[in-house]
């Protein structure tokens, strides 16, 4: 099976046009893999002295690990890569006289189709466990952990909807469009901390991630070609981060820490923009040698293989963790009796990672096909249908990411989150209002 997957990836790799920037694909794959491994390492469930299964997080237990998040929080890189890829795709659509609706349908299908089996499987799991009488808080915790990665899709779908506007702003105003979004994010943070308007902070889901996506347009237009400039920018981003966390009110961790009153990511803070500049400067400074390395057949085939299932890996990797914890629980707590942060616990991370990866592989084999939806025929639906479907889906996914699939409510299910997510996907798939003509 592994050899067959490698052969398919090799065939695709051999057909890659010479003009393709392979480093974009490499960063997309590696950033997702870093997130996956980071989530696995951060999870620290264990049985406490009373014999109760306790949900813990290594960032809360071992404070110095917060500094590691400056390396492992790579979502800024993914959004920058997304800006690059969306910019290329949207420009190609305009060149080919493709409508916004037609372009949006293609982007959304690739993002949303992999979500369907995840929703179905977890709905079944929650309903069965609810009927069996499993404690609601355990069901809620398990499904919430599994759906942590979904926040990314909820936000990214919104960024995709705005690509024509942000790309047009980039073409007209250049880096001023990035600084305008950054200034808006700074203003939101000032109101968040100085005035206490915490509800306004959620506007930074737009301003922060859109600003980082615009950096992808700049990369696409070769505005980041000077190595010295990139390294200076990385140093400035690092310096700004230090100032913000030591003098400003921002936490050191670039990932939300359970129990902390302030989260860098919920809602997003301007520290993520500084982090994007630091990480982006360092990574783009080595772009030239990296692209030469990726010209090799083995390196590029491995990159193609990772990207072919990267969304499936991402959205299912914490389901694998939930299954590993369940198996350990049923086995009398095997592997869950080490205190997080102890030397024994750290040594146990190697078999822990291996167990998670082993459980994840069959999930990818089973559901990876949803990452490659069949091409559609016929005219697309009106743009409003896709926009409404995307917004509905994003709202449902946000509820599921925040609350999990279930534990409470009718049949123990998060009815609103599931209904909105499925309704949104249905709106996009149904092509309501599409003409009958074939294109």
Characterise this structure:
This protein is mainly alpha-helical and 439 residues long. It has one domain. 69% of the residues lie in helices and 1% in strands. It is built from 21 helices and 2 strands. A two-stranded antiparallel sheet has the order 1-2. Helix 17 packs across helix 19. The longest helix is centred in the first third of the chain and has 21 residues. The protein is globular and about 60 Å long. The relative contact order is 0.16. The mean pLDDT is 90.
Beta-strand share of residues: under 5%
SSE order in H/E notation? Answer: HHEEHHHHHHHHHHHHHHHHHHH
Helical segment count: 21
Instruction: Give the biggest beta sheet.
Output: 2 strands, antiparallel
| Intertermini distance | 37 Å
Number of strands: 2
Helix content: 55-70%
* Unreliable parts: none
**Rg calculated over all Cα atoms:** 22 Å
Question: Looking across the biggest beta sheet, what order are the strands in?
Answer: 1-2
Backbone structural class: mainly alpha
Average of pLDDT: 90
Task: Give the SSE map.
Blueprint: H1 2-14, H2 22-42, E1 46-47, E2 53-54, H3 58-61, H4 69-72, H5 75-95, H6 100-112, H7 115-132, H8 136-146, H9 150-161, H10 163-173, H11 175-195, H12 204-220, H13 227-246, H14 271-285, H15 287-294, H16 297-308, H17 310-330, H18 343-347, H19 349-367, H20 383-403, H21 415-430
Antiparallel strand pairs: 1-2
Helix pairs in contact: 1-16, 2-5, 2-16, 2-17, 5-12, 6-9, 6-20, 8-17, 8-20, 9-12, 9-20, 10-11, 11-12, 13-14, 17-19, 20-21
